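WARN no homologs supplied; continuing
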Amino acid sequence: MTTWTPEDQTLISETYSLVLTAGDTDHPGVEIGMVVVDGELYVRAYRGVGSRWYRAARKHGHGTIRVGAVHHDVLLTTDGLERRAGLDAAFLTKYGSVAEALVASPEARAATIRIDPASAPAP
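OK structure emitted
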């Protein structure tokens, strides 16, 4: 697994949302909130595992993200993440009371995705 550079972690942490596209597609993607916990990037589908974009992420296991003007090819991991320590607190810290309604429900927890860079950035 490749890790995020310190610059990417700062950009992601300081940005309100990212645009995720799952698979090899030119669809516009979905804009979602995200958090970084221990250097790892996470998103949640507030509608749960039935969400169309969550199902696409699970099916393809890769895609792209856009944070501002920065694009990254990414790997999408969906298994065994709903109990990841610190995620609820990170979402609540970043998004306040809206996080409680959108990403702290059992449905959203079950639809957690870790996003990793697909490869190391070029020097």
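Strands lie at 17-22, 30-33, 35-37, 40-44, 62-67, 70-77, 112-117.
OK
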